């Protein structure tokens, strides 16, 4: 099965026997606008009906959910750091919004991952035990929710493989590889695994990669390399588009985290 993380969340919830109705962006916007009126903020009263304020609330709540920060934890942290009205009222809006979702068995985009994680961690302890292989490919970063879900599945799935771009043999990653290196270190710390490198015979050396690798994330305008350009170093070397269903890979050198449970 070829899946996104959203599909994986739904698969976990289905196997756990739990069902939630996922709301879309428009419903989320309307719900946040309604609960903001119920909270009756004073600090944000002048802007509470502005679309931009509601959209900013959506973005902040999404970030907190990705980091697994609950409304209660956020409000507790706000109280411990001076109880600033601008932060406290955001926390109250977040709490009212989350309470409505829970009371009506609803979930937003970010909530599905948290619900799946909670289900397989505490109630559905058999989810994943009959999965022989789980492969994650084409990611440049992972959220805390995604890593926490993998941490649980790591103890149940026979084998999990995560592929990342980069060269673990380079002691000082070039600027275009530092993002991938940070992701690798995050995975190694969270899942307590060690990255290994694919054998050299898997490399595909092509002049196309020379200019791309040298200028990736640099902001420099790219031009097609000449036929006389040298071979690229063994660093990068996967290109994907965002759509996980129709992406095309140009692979040369990848790092594999082989999680054998």
Descriptive overview:
Helix 2 (25-39) crosses helix 5. The chain is globular. The protein is of the alpha/beta class and 261 residues long. Strand 3 (134-136), helix 7 (144-153) and strand 4 (159-165) form a beta-alpha-beta unit. Helices cover 47% and strands 9% of the residues. Mean pLDDT is 79; it is low at 222-261. The protein contains nine helices and six strands; from the N terminus they run H-E-H-H-H-H-E-H-E-H-E-H-E-H-E. The protein has helices at 5-16, 25-39, 51-66, 71-80, 85-103, 109-123, 144-153, 175-191, 208-215, and strands spanning 21-22, 106-107, 134-136, 159-165, 196-197, 254-260. The strands form two sheets. It has a four-stranded mixed sheet, covered by helices on one side. Strands 1-2 form a two-stranded parallel ribbon.
Instruction: Provide the spatial order of strands within the biggest beta sheet.
Output: 3-4-6-5
Number of helices: 9
Radius of gyration: 22 Å
Helical coverage, percent range: 40-55%
| Biggest sheet features | 4 strands, mixed
Mean pLDDT: 79
> What's the shape?
globular
SSE pattern: HEHHHHEHEHEHEHE
Quote the distance from N terminus to C terminus. 21 Å
Stretches with pLDDT under 50, minimum 5 residues: 222-261
β-strand number:
6
User: How much β-strand is present in the residues?
Assistant: 5-15%
Structural class of the helix and strand makeup?
Answer: alpha/beta
Task: Give a short synopsis of this structure.
The protein has 261 residues and is of the alpha/beta class. It has helices at 5-16, 25-39, 51-66, 71-80, 85-103, 109-123, 144-153, 175-191, 208-215; strands at residues 21-22, 106-107, 134-136, 159-165, 196-197, 254-260. The strands form two sheets. It has a four-stranded mixed sheet with strand order 3-4-6-5, covered by helices on one side. The protein has a two-stranded parallel sheet with strand order 1-2.
């Amino acid at each position: 099965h070829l899946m996104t993380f959203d599909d994986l969340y739904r698969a976990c919830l289905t196997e756990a026997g739990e069902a939630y109705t996922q709301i879309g962006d428009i419903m989320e916007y309307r719900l946040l606008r309604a609960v903001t009126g119920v909270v009756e903020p004073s600090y944000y009263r002048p802007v509470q009906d502005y679309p931009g304020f509601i959209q900013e609330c959506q973005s902040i709540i999404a970030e907190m959910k990705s980091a697994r920060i609950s409304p209660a934890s956020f409000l507790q942290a706000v109280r411990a750091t001076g109880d600033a009205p601008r932060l406290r009222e955001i926390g109250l809006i977040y709490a009212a919004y989350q309470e409505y979702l829970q009371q009506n068995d609803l979930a937003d985009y970010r909530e599905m991952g948290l619900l799946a994680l909670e289900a397989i961690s505490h109630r559905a302890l058999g989810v994943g035990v009959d999965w022989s292989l789980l492969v994650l490919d084409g990611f440049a970063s992972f959220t805390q929710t995604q890593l926490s879900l993998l941490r649980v599945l790591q103890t149940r799935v026979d084998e999990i493989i995560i592929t990342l771009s980069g060269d673990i043999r380079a002691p000082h990653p070039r600027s275009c590889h530092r993002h991938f290196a940070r992701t690798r270190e995050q995975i190694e710390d969270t899942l307590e695994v060690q990255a290994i490198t694919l054998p050299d015979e898997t490399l595909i050396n092509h002049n196309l990669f020379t200019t791309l690798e040298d200028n990736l994330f640099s902001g420099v305008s790219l031009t097609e390399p000449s036929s006389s350009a040298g071979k690229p170093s063994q660093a990068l070397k996967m290109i994907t588009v965002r759509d996980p269903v129709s992406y095309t890979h140009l692979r040369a050198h990848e790092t594999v985290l082989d999680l054998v449970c």
